[in-house]
Each structure stands twice: as C-alpha cells, then as structure tokens.
Amino acid sequence: MDYQFLKISQPMPQVESVTISAPKSLNALNLDILKELMHYVDHIDNTLRVIIITGDGNKSFVAGADIAQMQNFNEAEALSFSQYGAEVFLKIENLPMPVIAAVNGFALGGGCELCMACDIRIASENALFGQPEVKLGIIPGFSGTYRLSKLVGQGFAKELIYTGRNIKADAALKIGLVNAVVPQDELMIYVLKIAGQIVANAPIAVNTAKQVINDNYDLSREDALALENKQFAACFNSEDQKEGMTAFLNKRPATFKNK
Ligand code: CO8
Fold it and tell me: Which is the catalytic residue, given 16, 36, 93, 133?
C-alpha cells in the first residue's frame, strides 16, 4: 500500500523507521493516519528487529489527535475514534519486536499516548510532553490514563492530566516518561545506536523478553514470576541459546540465527 501520511525507510539492516507526516497540523493524528498505522502494523515484516516511530520535521513528533476532525463528534463517533486509536496503539505495543519512539518535538495528547505505546522513548531537547485534553473539555482517549499512570505513577499522571500542563524533555526524563534526552541533531544517531545494540542480541530472546515484560504488566506477582520461568526455559529450545553460551565460553562473538 502507498501511504499518504507515513514515510517508511530502513536506516540500518533489520531496522525500519516510520515517520508520521502531516506537516500542516504538526503531524496531528486524524483517522486516515490511524488507518495507515493500522495497516502498517497489520502487515509488518516480523523478521524486522526494531521499529522506530518519529514525526516529520524538526518541531513535532505528534501534536495530538486532530482537533479539527474531533470538534463535531457525537458520543458514538468519539467512542469509535477512541477505540480505534487505542486498538492501533495496543497493536504497536504488542508488536513482536522492540519499538523506539524518537520524540523530535511536540508529543501532546495522542502524541504522548503514541510514544507511551512504544517500548523506549528517546527525546530531543526541544521535545514537549503533555496530556492537555482537559483544556479541550475531554480526557485522554488513546489509553493515556492507563499508560501514563503505569509509566510515571498515578501521582505525576494525575498532576499532568488534571492540569493539562506541558513539560519539557528534561522534566519528562526526571519522572521516567522518557529514557534519555539528546540534542535534536543527535536524536537519530542515538536511537540507531540503541537499535544496533538490540539487533546484535539474540532475536528470540529480545522478543521473548518484550512479550514477558508486556504480559507481566497486569498479572499477579505469582503469575508474572511463573510466566518468566516458563519463557526463560523456552529459550533453551533455541539454537541461539546454545550459540550465545558457547560463544561466551569460547571467548568469541556470537552469531545468532533467529532459530
Ligand atoms: N489538531 C489539529 N491541528 C493542530 C493540532 C491538533 N492537535 N495541533 C496543531 N495543529 C495545527 C494548528 O491548528 C495550526 O494550523 P494552522 O496553521 O492551519 O492554523 C498548525 O497546526 C500549527 O500550529 P500552531 O500555529 O498552533 O503552532 P505553535 O507552534 O504556535 O503551537 C502547539 C504548537 C503548542 C502544539 C499548538 O499547536 C497546540 O497546542 N496544539 C494542540 C495540542 C493539543 O491540545 N493536543 C491534544 C489534542 S486532543 C488529543 O490528542 C486527544 C487524544 C485522544 C482522542 C480520543 C478520541 C475521541
């Protein structure tokens, strides 16, 4: 499919970058963009090792859901839009490989929610984060109440959501909303460095780790620990486990086959 709002590239082998591009609205998410994202995740090449999501230009990651499109929604339309966006973001969160958000500017409302559906968030110094929905008479609708609370705790989540206040990248780093903050011209270099470190590791192990961390999110402690035990053991069915341990003991680099 030819995308109108997504630019897809391969900045390094086994790594794909998805750039959301709607410059006139600072990459705000309208239904067409969400549909393209849905198509992208539904047709992803599962052999890719890392996905990077970013926004076009040097000002905005995603400035939220498209306010012009939402303005005249009735309740049923709002529910449908909210559910569709939440479904796309859940699919992003559940992709088998790690997803890195390269947050290159505004990450507001749905933009903040999108980056929170990614595994890792790297921000440029000019990035701005917030859930300003209450200023528009609504609440976060793409899973922000859930994921922000999980990421930074209910205290900071409630403060950000009730005040609608935006915070700069360094403040987002302090509360654990982002993993690192780097100068804008170094953002992709830094993100690709992390991607390279991931790609060098055993694919089955990385993807299993992601799945276990995600699945453990809502489990009881006993169930979470049992799931980790089970999936840890399952790694021993892989050739890559044998290769990784043999390589270590023979003091040579491992060559993983994703088997
Ligand atoms: N939606 C639509 N258009 C937008 C959006 C947006 N979220 N953000 C910016 N734009 C447009 C502006 O209207 C403007 O268009 P135009 O040039 O035609 O006037 C253009 O982008 C540039 O914007 P500004 O001139 O405002 O640029 P500034 O640099 O002065 O300001 C800001 C940038 C701070 C990002 C400012 O544009 C802003 O505050 N934008 C809105 C941010 C916001 O409130 N985001 C949250 C939206 S609500 C949401 O995301 C809910 C998600 C859940 C939905 C659930 C479904 C029911």
Answer: 133
